Amino acid sequence: MQLGRIKIRYSVSLAYSVIYIAFLAVSIGLLSVYPTISSRDSVFSAKQNALTSQVTVMSVSLAALEQLSAEGVEQVMNLLDVGEYDRVLVTDSAGLVLYDTETRGSLLGQSCAFPQVLDALVWGNISCRFRYDTLAFSSEAAAPVMSYGSVIGSVYLHERDTDQADMIRSLQGRLRSISLIAGAVTLLLTVLFSRYLTRRLRTLVDGMRIVREGDYDYRVPVKGADEVSDLSEAFNEMTGRLQSTDELRRRFVSDASHELRTPLASIRLLSDSVVQSDRMDPDTMREFVTDIGTEAERLQRLTEKLMRLTRMDSKLPVSRSPVQLKAVAERAVHLLRPLAEQKNVTVRAELDESAVIYAAEDDLLQIVFNLTENAIKYNSRGGSVTLRLTREGDRAVLRVEDTGIGIPAEDLPHIFERFYRVDKARSREAGGSGLGLSIVHDAVLRHNGTIRAERRDPAGSRFTVSFPLYAGETGGGEE
Ligand SMILES: Nc1ncnc2c1ncn2[C@@H]1O[C@H](COP(=O)(O)OP(=O)(O)O)[C@@H](O)[C@H]1O
Ligand SMILES: [Mg+2]
User: Which of 11, 71, 151, 185 is most buried per CB count within 10 Å?
Assistant: First the structure.
């Protein structure tokens, strides 16, 4: 069953791991990207507000000059605090740079082609641009300088902010390590858990394999209180059932062979004697052959009963019809009349003819016949047997009572078992096999009936059988 093992490992372990890892990847991804993006956006919008208002202040201050010149601009800019910016640049309306805080690579006296500046000069717009490159936030803004409705120049601001960028970077780093730790822990737990689950399932599968090989004593260990332990418990219960069925079957086979052996041995012995003796007088010979016949008859009865039991076990459909129980009981009594006469037992019958049940007639005859036969067989000479059939509520109740030897209390719970006999010698002498009552029991259960055996005061036994009464149309005759 290598295949089964592989299947389990793949289906449970792998499925778990794949699901967890997919879940992890998605959440770690979201966790590390989303906070960074949203904090970056909020930094951008704060910067946009600040920069726009600052560039506007500068533009308004410069507008007071009406005409932009390098000196004039310088004076105004000195009044404004421009030290906090990385670069401040002022151009005239043609884009010529009049003022530049940048010393290296200064554009002073040259024309400026920054897109923001062009935007301000050509369209009169305030325009901003932001960039974030993990090291710094770089923000640029330019505004036109307006005088009497016309553009006389532009101001340009550039700021590089590393503090905020550092903050975002460290946030990102921290999120990454938290995600990694969480991921590693989850992965570890997933692997451990799925290993644990797989191990338990494998124990169960191994147990099943052991039981399948026929070791019904084996029980799977049950740990915890989850679905796997429920499964193990159910499996153990099932094994228990199998075990008792198996035991029952073994006992049945061994009992049956034992029962068959006795008459076969006698037949063998008798026939050997006939064959071996040279001059046997005809009377003895006839006696021996008659004995052989008797034993053969016993064998025949036994095998018939065995076959009947097997047939009932096989749960084949029974064909049923409404049956008047009184007629069946009368037939059984009629068939047993010779036995009753031989044992000098009186059989009385008080039978309600309205007790009709829906059943297989042959099964009912078996029930009444076996109970009545026992009541006669295990009676004392001159005793009596009473069959009483009544209707009680929605049930037909048949009581078979005798004045015989009775059944000892300790044997009562066992008499319906196969081959069970209280007094083996007496039963065998009477031609019994110990199968009669188990046939009765099976047949009663097959018809949703109940059966009870009890001792009578002062002597004898009473068997009570009850069946649901036939209530009219019950449908077809097959079960
Ligand atoms: N009416 C009864 N009175 C006393 N003992 C009984 C009676 N019915 C059954 N038994 C006991 O129960 C045993 C089982 O009965 P049964 O299955 O019919 O087997 P058997 O073939 O011996 O009749 C009998 O051997 C007998 O010891
Ligand atoms: Mg019997």
Answer: 151
Residues 136 and 15 in one domain: yes
In sequence order, which residues have a C-beta less than 8 Å from that of residue 270 and are 6 or more positions away? Answer: 288, 289, 291, 292, 295
pTM of this prediction?
0.62
Co-location of 383 and 278 in the same domain: no
Q: Is residue 402 within 8 Å of residue 343, measured between CB atoms? A: no
Domain containing 281 equals 227-310
| CATH number, position 304 | 1.10.287.130
437 Cβ inside 6 Å of ligand 1? yes
Pocket test for ligand 1, best of 298, 306, 370, 378 (most atoms within 8 A of CB): 378
CA–centroid distance, residue 373 to ligand 1 (Å): 9
At residue 289, what is the residue type?
Answer: V
103 inside domain: yes
Decide: 436 in ligand 1 pocket, CB within 6 A.
Answer: yes
What's the CA-to-centroid distance between 223 and ligand 2, angstroms?
49
Tell me how crowded residue 143 is: count the other CB atoms within 10 A of its CB: 28
- Cβ(461) to ligand 1 under 6 A? yes
Question: Both 34 and 144 in a single domain?
Answer: yes
| CA 358 – CA 196 distance, rounded (Å) | 56
pLDDT, one tens digit per residue, over 165-201 is 888 888 888 888 888 888 889 888 888 888 888 888 8
Question: Does 354 lie in the same domain as 259?
Answer: no
Distance 374 CA to ligand 2 centre (A): 5
